Backbone:
């Protein structure tokens, strides 16, 4: 959410006002969370419908991976400048623009599908939508500290992840039912509508102004005088100098390579290997989102008791175990349970890592740090999606799940040898924050 004049009003922001006993007592925060939940509901429709649409048209898991890879490439390229834009422009307006753009792009698919079924349109639209999705995601991360108090960031992220899980729990199931009844293109159209509603709602969310650094010569902050390249590198330098964020970025890059195409593999396994329809795919993915919901209830307690390092490493190790077992079972109910376990673990890891970045990064630099973080650790994702889906087509989904799961666990455990393993404090402000 971008700053506008209303963000400077004297009305207290979430968590700051007297008598505010919880985040939920603030209507501004409730509106923000509700809008994110609505977006998650729409996203879950496209998350299921786009791979199904490609599979219906081509019958190829490799083509599913190709679309996923194209989207990843678009996100990576966008990440080179997304943080610069988020730190320079009105963040509220930027979020509105990204929502409107995705509404128009995704709305184009069902509109065209009324008259023809050109699969090339999916290859063209989805990566462009990925550009705006990356802009939205980077900007969204930057506004959370402008809506809640510093000590409430972990709790707010838990709420947001929980809201995503609740919204997404019914989303894949409904998307599967809509796709089975009216076709995947109709499910994508529902996502387009949610973006329109979100764009309107964002206009009413208040965000505190981000403090600016001291201005240098010429009246501009020193970090903003070197152009886009220098601004992006400012975020990358912050990551590199931080004793926890540096290894976290590297290890998440390896994990992204391994897991970027897993949703495609899971859908392929349920439909091709196990012989079930679109509705079953929706049920399995819905079960997975319940794991994310469960993570939101325990992540703060785990981090308080075990520390950041132990909870992050342990969660991703267990996630790898769950992925490996996906390749050892032919039972759809057990596949659903394992998907839930996998997303439970990745939810714990994701909430922890996002909260850490928001807590230790100066507000004026948060867009660039977030952009650099996502660009670097997502850079191997498209290659990974192509490799994993190609391997699934050649050797089968069970073997690929087994190998990927073992590798995920090994990468996570290697974190014990880095600054992640030494990050014992429960709160990021107690960590060595670096320069």
Residues:
């Amino acid at each position: 959410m971008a700053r506008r004049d209303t963000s400077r009003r004297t009305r207290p922001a979430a968590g700051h006002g007297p008598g505010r006993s919880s985040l939920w007592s603030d209507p501004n925060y409730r509106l923000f969370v509700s809008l994110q939940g609505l977006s998650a509901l729409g996203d879950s429709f496209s998350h299921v419908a786009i791979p199904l649409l490609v599979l219906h048209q081509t019958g190829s898991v490799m083509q599913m991976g190709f679309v996923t890879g194209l989207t990843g490439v678009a996100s990576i390229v966008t990440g080179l400048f997304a943080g610069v834009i988020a730190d320079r422009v009105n963040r509220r307006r930027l979020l509105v623009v990204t929502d409107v753009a995705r509404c128009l792009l995704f709305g184009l698919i069902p509109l065209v599908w009324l008259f023809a079924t050109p699969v090339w349109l999916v290859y063209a639209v989805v990566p462009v939508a990925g550009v705006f999705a990356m802009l939205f995601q980077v900007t969204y991360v930057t506004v959370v500290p402008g809506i809640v108090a510093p000590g409430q960031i972990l709790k707010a992220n838990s709420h947001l992840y929980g809201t995503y899980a609740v919204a997404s729990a019914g989303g894949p199931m409904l998307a599967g039912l809509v796709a089975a009844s009216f076709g995947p293109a109709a499910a994508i159209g529902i996502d387009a509508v949610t973006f329109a509603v979100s764009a309107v709602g964002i206009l009413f969310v208040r965000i505190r102004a981000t403090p600016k650094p001291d201005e240098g010569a010429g009246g501009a902050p020193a970090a903003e005088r070197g152009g886009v390249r220098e601004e992006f590198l400012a975020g990358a330098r912050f990551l590199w100098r931080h004793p926890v964020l540096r290894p976290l970025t590297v290890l998440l890059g390896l994990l992204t390579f391994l897991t970027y195409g897993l949703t495609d593999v899971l859908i392929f396994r349920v439909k091709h290997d196990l012989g079930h329809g679109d509705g079953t795919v929706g049920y399995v993915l819905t079960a997975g989102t319940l794991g994310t919901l469960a993570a939101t209830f325990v992540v703060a307690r785990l981090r308080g008791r075990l520390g950041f390092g132990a909870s992050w490493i342990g969660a991703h190790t267990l996630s790898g175990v769950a992925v490996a077992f996906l390749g050892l079972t032919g039972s759809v109910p057990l596949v659903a349970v394992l998907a839930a376990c996998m997303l439970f673990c990745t939810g714990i890891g994701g909430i922890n890592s996002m909260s850490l970045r928001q807590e230790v990064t100066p507000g004026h630099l948060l867009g660039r740090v977030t952009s650099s973080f996502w660009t670097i650790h997502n850079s191997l994702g498209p290659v990974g999606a192509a490799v994993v889906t190609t391997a699934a087509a050649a050797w089968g989904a069970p073997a690929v799940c087994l190998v990927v799961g073992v590798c995920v666990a090994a990468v996570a455990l290697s974190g014990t040898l880095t600054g992640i393993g030494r990050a014992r404090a429960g709160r990021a402000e107690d960590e060595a924050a670096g320069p």
About this structure: Confidence is low (pLDDT under 50) at residues 1-21, 215-225, 425-435. The CA atoms of residues 154 and 355 lie 5 Å apart. The first helix runs from residue 27 to 58. The radius of gyration is 21 Å.
